[in-house]
Amino acid sequence: LQGIIQAYKSGITLQGNTTSLGRWDYSGSFFFSISAITTIGYGNLSPSTAVGRIFSIVFALFGIPLNLVLLNEIGHLMLLGVQHCASRLEEVFHWQNKASFLMKTCALVTGLLLFLLLPPLLFSDKEGWSYEEGFYYSFITLSTIGFGDYVIGMNPDRTYPSWYKNVISLWILFGMAWLALVIKFCINILE
């Protein structure tokens, strides 16, 4: 039993294992599809059959472009929200440049809290990671680097709530859109 658990922790699955320790339940499959279309690719979960691999290729061929469109739209909506709030501040308080700067700063701080600073607290609770490990996972995931050294929901010694992977999948989508805006802003400054 210890050998099976150690193999599972290393990302190895046994052929014919019907339980698979929750990897292919609904939330695990949803998380796999999000990591595939976002090109994070942690490397710990992959299809083991030829049909599964072919399906993954077809799914990625359509899913990656659709995800890029979705992330672009989410980022555009976030930017429109910030611009709308800035224009309302300009109208109400008659601020010109201050409103735009204030709203961009608020959007940056809010995004930092929602996508990089608060999630490590959840990961500390659910995964048993330190805050630094959770912060590292947050950035590595949202930047789509996805080394695979930290992946949520894979510790067989822990029990995860059914909502956990689904919420993290949504966090990934919105967090990637926010981080893309931050990276675009940094590119504009550098140029």
Please describe the structure with a list of short key phrases separated by commas or semicolons:
191 residues, mainly alpha, Helix Hairpins
Summarize, please.
It comes from Melospiza melodia. With 191 residues, this protein is mainly α.
Topology:
Elements: H1 2-9, H2 26-37, H3 50-93, H4 97-117, H5 119-127, H6 131-142, H7 164-190
What would you note in describing this structure?
Pfam families: Ion_trans_2. It comes from Melospiza melodia. This protein has 191 residues and is mainly alpha-helical. It has a single domain, classed as Helix Hairpins (Orthogonal Bundle), CATH 1.10.287.70. Helix content is 70%, strand content 0%. It is built from seven helices and no strands. The protein has helices at residues 2-9, 26-37, 50-93, 97-117, 119-127, 131-142, 164-190. Helix 3 packs antiparallel against helix 4 (97-117). The longest helix has 44 residues, at 50-93. The protein is elongated and about 70 Å long. Residues 16-21 have low confidence and may be disordered.
Give the beta-strand count. Answer: 0
Q: Major β-sheet, in short?
A: none
Order of helices and strands: HHHHHHH
* Alpha plus pi helix count: 7
CATH architecture: Orthogonal Bundle
Structural class: mainly alpha
Radius of gyration: 20 Å
The termini sit apart by: 56 Å
- CATH fold call: Helix Hairpins
Strand content: under 5%
Report the mean per-residue pLDDT as an integer: 87
* Number of domains as seen in the coordinates: 1
Morphology call? elongated
CATH structural class: Mainly Alpha
